[in-house]
Known about the structure:
Layout: E1 12-14, H1 21-30, E2 34-36, H2 38-57, H3 81-92, E3 96-99, H4 102-116, H5 126-137, E4 140-141, E5 144-146, H6 155-165, E6 170-172, E7 177-179, H7 180-186, H8 198-203, H9 207-237, H10 247-251, H11 256-269, H12 273-277, H13 288-291, H14 293-315, E8 323-325, E9 330-332, H15 340-368, H16 370-373, H17 390-406, H18 428-457, H19 466-476, H20 489-500, H21 503-512
Parallel strand pairs: 1-2
Antiparallel strand pairs: 3-5, 4-6, 6-7, 8-9
Helix pairs in contact: 1-4, 1-9, 3-6, 4-5, 4-9, 9-11, 9-14, 9-15, 9-18, 11-14, 14-15, 15-17, 15-18, 17-18, 18-20, 19-21
Amino acid sequence: xxxxANEGTGSVVIDGNSxxxxxxxxxxxxxxxxxxxxxxxxxxxxxxxxxxxxxxxxATIYAVNTGVGDLVNARISKKDLKSLQLNLxxxxxxxxxxxxxxxxxxAIMLLRAxxxxxGFSGIRPDxxxxxxxxxxxxxxxxxxxxxxxxASGDLTILAHLGxxxxxxxxxxxGNGPEPGIDALGRRGLEPISLEPKEAISIINGTQAMGGIGxxxxxxxxxxxxxxxxxAAMSLEALKGTSMAFxxxxxxxxxHPGQVRVSGNMVSMLQGSEIMLSxxxxxxxxxxxxxxxxxxxxxxxxxxxWYADDVISVELNSATDNPLFFPEDGSVISGGNFHxxxxxxxxxxxxxxVHELGSYSERRVAxxxxxxxxxxxxxxxxxxxxxxxxxxxxxxxxxxVSENKVLVHPASASSIPTSANQEDFxxxxxxxxxxxxxxxxxxSRVVAIEMIAAAQALDFISASPSAPVQEVRxxxxxxxxxxxxxxxxxEDIESVARMILDGVFVDTVEHTCGFxxx
Length: 517
């Protein structure tokens, strides 16, 4: 996974085949410039010619000379073909609610340009060229978050994107919200005029759920790495044993995630004075939150890998309808716009990341409970007059409880639309946004664990392992020891940002060869 949004040099080439999650992050967050590949431009021209020949013959083609949805049987006259395109954008652009953040809008634009650049949509190269110009000029459509049911693509969301392309809708080009035509003009861009088939090619796709999903997978991968780091810190502070990470245990149950996490725990804990100090203690086994770290975090890691695989396929897929195949002039109506693969993957991702947070909160609870930790109650020297780390555990519990509501699968909630023509929908965009929200929530839970573990280690005279000590020192550069009560809100947010920025992972990777997700 990408370490930093600004890493990587040069522009990202949009060719329909080579987009990666790393590149999405670079463009969405790092504002890396983009350009359309020459081969993909030629493919689009061939596909467009195939469409134009079919239109000339009078062939019936969905959304070119027919209505859409349950209006598929309404035939459109030649004089109304262009009017249909603009009407499709206007009628579908009825999203509501908060606007997507800039990084999500940019991810959506990039993914849509890439899908069109595959050359199976029957559109002119002008459309992805326009999207690339908007990305490079930082003209960002203001897209309402609510309105997609995740089949026939993200119709509503993508329609708001399309309106700005034609000089309507709302956008932000650095001067705040304004009419799309003004935002384009501010950056020296001219709106485009749509030809037959081009509106449906803008709105018929999975690029909202795909864009949100790509960013969520990237962040989840960084988060699962940090979950292992936090667990190692807590294990040291609670004087647990590393025996449960013996490679022989994973060898006889070789789930790849378990093997990876077990190896990382061994690497991070080597050379710990704390471990040596209680090597021959009377304790037989640790609690599950310490003993089963490879099995639990490893399972979430594999779920994240699965979501990564699904998103990676989707990034380079043709997802509109119908599709045009220039080699034989075929036009085929199908269902590549259906978001079910992403819906299931995003629901799974949200559940897997929630488990990381739930697991982390239980270790926080152990750290602040003197009966379990052997440390001062709530990790403060002045218990009673000071509450110490008591209430941050409440916050972690609250966040975990919120996530338990969010993990209800959106993909289980199909509602038919368009007079039952579109009778099974994925709700994949809802699933992706939930996953993103859960990732952000859990970053704060893991931040609380890291702060609590660092505070706990301050009460132990022996030294932790070098990697754990490096992480503690890095955390201490931003968050001072809690010698007397203070508000920890900004400390928690600061550490959560460090977590998602990969700061701690960079440190342990350098110190002990930690293997990233």
